[in-house]
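hi! just following up on the protien thing from before. the input was this:
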Amino acid sequence: MTAASPAWTLGSRAARLLRALFRSRAFETATTEGRAFERERRAIQAALASGCAKALNALLTLALLRLALTHFGPDRFALWATANSVLLVLPNLDLGIGSGLVNQVASANGRDDRDHAAAAVSSALALLAGSCLSLLLILACVYPFVPWPRLLDVGVLARDETGPTLAVAAIFVAMSMPLGIAQRVQIGYQESSSSSGWTALGNALGFGAFVLALHMRAGVPATLGAFLGGQALAAVAQTCWLFGRSHRWLVPRWALVHVPVMRSLAQQGARFVVGQLGSLVLAAAPPPLMGHLYGSSAVASYTLAVRPIWAFVLLSSFWVIPLWPAYAEAHARGDRRWVARTYRRSLALATAIASTGCLAFALWHGVVFRVLGGAAFSPSRTAIAGFCTLIVAHSTRWVALICLNGCGRVGRPASYQALGAALTVAAALAFGGLVSFEGSLWIFVAGESLVTAALLLDVSRMLRKGGSAHADDDR
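and the predicted 3d structure came back as:
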């Protein structure tokens, strides 16, 4: 019998994956090949569901902003926008415990260890509930003594609502920490498509409650509470469904709260926070530093150039981010061939997507700037090369980072990102005044590229050594 050609084998695999997208029945996971197909099926479904949920959220957000501006007027809308900015701290407020829980649940799933998964869930809930109560206690203590209108310098029409609005935002941010457990568990079990559905439901409920509050002529605190209350209601329903039906063995119990597991979650969470802060600085520092060094026109130039091609980074992230729990589960099972193969394919895909976007930007940047209203901005070839290099480096950094995090290697990547961010900002402040806009841009490009190179080398070293039974490299 003639052996199948590589092209035929690849085509058959792709066709099988496409058919799997539209079926609810999972692949047989008793074999290595079946588990590989099931991981990829879940990752692709998660990417599609996440894209749909984010598209719905973007549409609802635009409609919500228009309604809020029309209803509240400039002063009260500014208060609404300020309160919503408080919600931006939501992903990092759990001190990385949620990310640590994803890793522990996914690894326990790879070992078929339900007991450890249940202990991790109960211990994480105890930590997050304690954080929630601490935040509420701090709010109760400081709220009466802070002159909120003067602190935020809001308009006259919004002064009476400033304190209550910020209090509502802070209360729901605190509540979101324990309520986010269900989402993290579903991500850990590679059920992100279901989690995205619950998120979309929460956004829809929040928008509906917001419209109802506007119809009743409610003020800023009540409308914000209605919006966040709809999201919280969906999170409560998701939690009840998770622990009451789909994963009953994970029901939190005090007997399952273990100090060693809490310590492990806290330590890993701290490393995640350090890495997230470093990554945030690398991505968000250029605009304010450009403004500090060269004025507001430099900020506009940087934003006009980066934002259009940033969409290609987001496009590749739809596939890359759902692989995090898949890497963790595969690593725990010892399926390192799948980890290596998937990482290389993801790296090639992300590089191709980012490079395509950068090539299009290099060829048609003039048209892009005219459409966006920045026709007066004409970047040099050096600047265009810098923007494109920055985007490609960022895309590949995410691929390496997700693989390392999924395999439990959190400490070194966090150190690379934090150190790289600190050195990049220091170099920009020290030498930015001595060089042109293009020179400062290449300082950020160099920082991003060095961090990316360190992460890529770390992945290469991990794959070459074949990993270890205990992946965390910080012990």
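The mean pLDDT is 84.
The two ends are 52 Å apart (CA to CA).
cheers
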